[in-house]
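Students often ask why we bother encoding 3D structure as a string. The short answer is that it lets us treat folding as translation between two languages. Here is a chain of 260 residues written in the first language.
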Amino acid sequence: MLKGKTALVTGSTSGIGLGIAKALAAQGAHVVLNGFGEYQEVMASVRAAGAAHGIEVDYHGADMSKPDEIAAMMAFAAQRFGRVDILVNNAGIQHVASVQDFPPEKWDAILAINLSSAFHTTRLALPAMLEAGWGRIINVASVHGLVASAQKSAYVAAKHGVVGLTKVTALETATTGVTCNAICPGWVLTPLVQKQVDAKAEQQGISVEEATRQLLGEKEPSMQFTTPEELGALAVFFCSPAANNVRGVTWNMDGGWAAQ
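And here it is in the second language, the structure alphabet:
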């Protein structure tokens, strides 16, 4: 379905971003990866996902808190593949503390990476998308773009901002072939979340199963994690002809979290 298209996925060396990158590759899209850490094995896994289509995969290590590096990444993708057809803004970090104790530098970093980076990639991707008459911008927000949780002021503020940016971008492109939508996951079983579960189990002297039940029971009525693969499938839907008139939505995959 996406053969000949190019997707750029930020924060895609693990977890949600990697799941989305693989799903898009499996539909035939070339992929530009971005993120911290080792990436050669990740590139190989995405290339394998799209092997049937002969896709190409590349990587750019832009620090998503730095506008100049974001601009260099977008220029790299355009030079490598012609343009970015599918932009997935997924990069994000987290810090937990009460408002009065929240370190200002952590606030600034979370707003820069979780929100401002999506603005910078979007503004740079839009001209070529509009000229081509087709584009997909998918912002990975969070259920915290819809509701709040204590101790997460910067993250909640940033994700609410991502939802607002999504709606404005969708309105500004409403009569074009470019769409912009947001995915709002609840708990997703990524390596980072598994570490939280394992730490909870160790701290409380309980089983991993009980720690998982406690974590999900606090917020998620379905009592099950969303998977990166499920989120990847939703991203593929947003890129499909069936979603041509899906614009500005905040599509939560949260097991009923926001329905409470």
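Translate back mentally: The chain is about 45% helix and 15% strand. Keep this in mind for the problem set.
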